[in-house]
Every structure is written in C-alpha cells, then in structure tokens.
Design brief:
Number of helices: 11
Shape: globular
Cofactor: FAD
Radius of gyration: 23 Å
GO molecular function, one term: FAD binding
Protein name: Monooxygenase FAD-binding protein
Number of domains: 3
InterPro entries: FAD-bd, FAD/NAD-bd_sf, RIFMO-like
CATH class of the largest domain: Alpha Beta
Largest sheet: 8 strands, mixed
Distance between the termini: 39 Å
CATH superfamily of the largest domain: FAD/NAD(P)-binding domain
Pfam family, one: FAD_binding_3
Bound molecules: flavin-adenine dinucleotide
C-alpha cells in the first residue's frame, strides 16, 4: 500500500520522494503534465542546495552538467557600458565545499533527481492529476481522475496553483502585480558568443530591455524580457527576433524557441503548511520573484526538511514532529519573499544594482535556532563540512559522516549505551561544536549539543527516531569509531 502520495514531480516533489524512498517508505509520485517539464526556469542552484544534493548523492552529476554564473556585460543599445557578476566566485573551504552559485537548467536538475528516484525503485507517473481528496483520522482518500486511492499522507508539491492548498482552504496571502510581467524563454541563437551573459538597457533612460544567459550543457540561451503594462506577449521566433533587434542585439539570430512562458509578479505565501495528513511544500506554499534565484532552492529545502520527519512519523514517531516542519520552514519562506521582492524592485529601478548579491542569497545562513527541535548552544545551525579526528587518530570528513538518511552523533565522551539504529555514533577527540556531544539531524542541522550522555538519550526519545529496520542506505547501522 502507498504510504505517501506526492502530487507534483517538480524539484520539490522529487526531493520529497527521494527522501521518503531512501528510508523505505512506499511512495507514489504523480504529475498532471503528460511529460517532464522542459524549460530552464529555475536555473540557479545555491550553495546550500548543492550540499543537500551531496547528501542525496546527486551533486557530482549536477556539477558536471552545470557551470558557473558567467560575467555580465550590460549594453545601452549597442554600446557596452558596464560589467558585472552575480555573486563572487570563491574557492571552496573545508567548511563550505560548494561556495558558488551553479547555473543548470531546471529541466536538467529534474532529470538528475528523477534518475536518482528511479534508482530507488520509484518512477514518476506522468499524466496523472490529483483532482480532489478527503481525509480522516487514518488517512487520505485521493481522487486521481477516475481512480481513487487511499494513502496515509498527501504531500502537495503541485506548484503555485496547488490543488492541495486550495482544497484545504489555506489562504495564499500576498499580492499579484498584474502590470509586472516578463517573457522567459529558451532560445537557440546564432551570432552571439557564449562567453558572457548579456543584458540590454534602453540608452539614456537605462530601462531594462532584455537579458540572455548562455545555458550550460545546451546550445540555448535563457532570454528574459520585461513586458510593458498591457502589452500582449508574442512568443514566436519572429517576435523574439524583433525584440532582440529593438534592444540592440542586432547580430543575434533566433534559430529556435525551445520553450517560452510569461511570468507575472505573484508574491504570496501560504498561511499554514499542514492540515492533518496533508502538507504543502515548494511553490505550493510560497511564490515570489525569480530575482535572487531562491524559488527552486527553497522548495528543495522544504522537501528536505519534511522528508525525514514524515518518514519518522510513519515509522512510529509522534505526529507532533510534523508540526516542526511549518515552524521551521514558514519563517524561511517569509525571509525569502522579502529578499526576492527587494531584489525584484531594485531591478526595476537600477539594473546595475540588481546584480549585486550578498551572502543572504546563498542560503547557507538559514538556521532553525528558534525551533523546538534545537536544544543547546549552536543547535539549529547548519552542520558545516570540516574534519574531525576520531579517537583512533583517523581524520574524518564531516560530510562523509552525515551523508545518508541517518542521524549522526559526534561523541567526545562516552555515548549512551543504547541508541536507535537510525543514529550513527562516531567517537571523536573533539566534537565540531566543542561540546561533548553534537547530534546532527538527518537534514544537516545541529539538533542538540550537550555535555551529558543522558541528554542525548532524552532528546532522541522525545523525537523518537524511527526504529524501522529498513533504513535502506545505512547498511552499516550504528558504527562506533
Ligand atoms: C522565470 C523564472 C526564473 C526562475 N529562476 C529561478 C532561479 O534562478 N532559482 C530558483 O531557485 N528558482 C527560480 N525560479 C522558481 C522555480 O522555477 C520554482 O520555484 C520551482 O519550479 C518550484 O518547484 P516546485 O517543485 O515547488 O513546483 P513546480 O516546479 O511548479 O512543479 C509542480 C509540479 O506539479 C504538477 N502539478 C500541478 N498540479 C497538479 C495536480 N493537480 N496533480 C498532479 N500534479 C500537478 C505540475 O505539472 C508540476 O510539474 C524561477 C521561476 C521562474 C518562473
């Protein structure tokens, strides 16, 4: 029997499915679209998402398919007037192995995630839509067109127009700015080098006209062009060709429009993320401007936060654990909405300022310090990479210890004798936080730091780590070093 039905096989639904499937949960993923999404849309993967992908076992592939954010050359008409770069390119450090924003078309990211899911024995069912559902104390009855199915939980990763959110009557609060729209299209161009990202502004008034970013791993460029209020968008090859000429890109020839869409400024977030056995994540829970490249990344991290908790509850943990999903993720969405709206509004007045990025967009600073799951000094912080020394003198890379669906206890003192097999224990000379015990959650955040081994047992009892034997990838179970 399916335990969890995931509606929507975008990045959010796929990550949720991987997290559940690798913990042995029977999961079904449906998508109303007859085939996979084929556009570049969310093309920026933030450093924190790359760390999540490292844990999911897909980072190498994603890095191989993607590329760095190229320098930007801004033209006023045909005259180059300014150079810029989105973010700084920095060298990896021991704590941050993936410090840079990666550009990779969204359809390529989704393909990598789908392949990973296939490896776990789950295939996305395309052309199957969730049309309605009801829930009771034991489960959810979902209507998938003519089919009715019964599951224990439903995850709505069904995008901005989420059926799950609407059916639950969860308000989607915020604003829609009808006048602010832009064309986003993947185009094959000739007569344009692929060494820089070109942006065009209107001479004198400096109004943003168009940008074209070469997409790594393809022959395409992602073209972004704002529409004037009331303008009817034309998405044909000829119309895009005219737009390029108007902006000043005279040498560019449009050979093909591979994908196109019209984006409208919709800045909203859901008031709640859960109602009983139905939960929402990703664009179903929050939508905002693509400025700052936050949307896909926030959805991936919603799913990463939810996946292990849902698996734990299905394995016997208290349902209350699911409450911490909203408690931890809703405030993050609020911050992301503020940040992306600020960058979006800046872009309307100054193209040059719009490309400036601080550390706030890389998502490495996201923390859950305010969460009921965070106990002790530095609890709730991201568990950074680094090196610890085992009691035997072996140097251990932290991300190697964290990778997989388990909890990790770094113990610089005698650990509790009895621990759940879902916790891997490593005896170390000093734990990364300096405390005797550092307990790292499955999603790479510090849950607990403490001096007393009894506190570790108590904390884990409170959360009730899953006791299900089939934590598929932690074959070694509990290891003590
Ligand atoms: C122009 C543009 C540029 C962007 N740039 C960036 C960027 O640089 N970085 C970034 O992080 N984000 C970016 N984003 C945002 C990013 O694309 C989205 O945030 C991301 O796709 C959200 O993923 P999701 O899985 O939550 O939803 P979606 O990708 O929307 O997936 C939802 C899926 O659910 C399916 N579905 C819908 N209804 C049903 C139903 N009833 N039953 C079954 N299936 C259903 C849909 O077919 C779809 O496949 C950009 C967005 C746009 C428009």
């Amino acid at each position: 029997m399916t335990e969890v039905l995931i509606a929507g096989a975008g990045p959010t639904g796929l990550v949720a499915a991987i997290e559940l499937a690798r913990r042995g949960v029977a999961v079904r993923v449906i998508d109303k679209s007859p085939q996979p999404f084929h556009g570049s849309r969310g093309k920026g993967l933030q450093p924190r998402t790359l760390e999540v992908f490292d844990d999911l076992g897909v980072v190498e592939e994603v890095l191989a398919l993607g590329g760095p954010y190229l320098p930007i050359r801004v033209y006023a008409g045909r005259v180059p007037v300014w150079r810029a770069r989105i973010g700084k390119i920095t060298a990896p450090t021991a704590q941050t192995p993936y410090p840079n924003l990666l550009m990779i078309p969204q359809n390529h990211t989704e393909r990598v995630l789908r392949d990973r899911l296939t490896g776990l024995g789950v295939e996305v069912e395309f052309g199957v839509a969730l049309t309605d559902f009801t829930q009771d104390a034991e489960g959810v009855t979902a209507r998938l067109g003519d089919e009715t199915t019964r599951v224990r939980y439903l995850v709505g990763a069904d995008g901005a127009h989420s059926v799950v959110r609407k059916r639950l009557g969860i308000p989607f609060e915020g604003q829609t700015r009808e006048a602010e729209r832009m064309i986003v299209a993947d185009v094959r161009l000739s007569g344009v080098d692929r060494d820089v990202w070109r942006a065009y502004v209107k001479p004198l008034r400096r109004r943003f006209m168009l940008a074209m970013a070469p997409l790594p791993g393809t022959e395409l460029f992602q073209l972004i062009a704002p529409l004037r209020p009331g303008e009817t968008p034309e998405l044909t090859r000829e119309a895009i060709q005219r737009r390029l000429a108007d902006a000043g890109a005279r040498s560019a020839r449009v050979a093909e429009v591979a994908w196109s869409s019209v984006w409208r400024a919709n800045i909203r977030m859901a008031r709640r993320y859960r109602d009983g056995r139905a939960l929402i994540a990703g664009d179903a829970a929050h939508v905002h401007s693509p400025a700052g490249g936050q949307g896909l990344n926030t959805g991936v991290q919603d799913a990463y936060n939810l996946g292990w908790k849902l698996a734990a509850v299905l394995a016997g943990a208290d349902e209350e654990l699911l409450e911490t999903y909203e408690a931890e993720r809703l405030p993050v969405a609020a911050v992301v909405l503020g940040l992306s709206t600020r960058l979006h509004d800046t872009a309307a007045t100054s193209v040059t300022k719009a490309f400036k990025r601080g550390a706030d967009t890389d998502q490495l600073g996201i923390h859950y310090r305010y969460s009921p799951l965070s106990v002790g000094e530095r609890a709730g912080d991201r568990a950074a990479d680094g090196v610890v020394t085992s009691v035997d003198g072996e140097r251990l890379r932290l991300f190697d210890l964290y990778r997989g669906p388990h909890w990790t206890l770094l113990a610089a003192a005698e650990p509790p004798a009895e621990l759940d097999p879902g916790v891997r224990v490593h005896r170390v000379r000093a734990s990364p936080t300096g405390d005797a015990f550092t307990l790292v959650r499955p999603d790479g955040y510090i849950g607990l730091t403490c001096r007393d081994a009894r506190q570790v047992s108590e904390y884990l009892r409170r959360i009730t780590v899953p006791t299900r034997p089939a934590i598929r990838e932690s074959a070694a179970g509990r290891s003590t070093e």
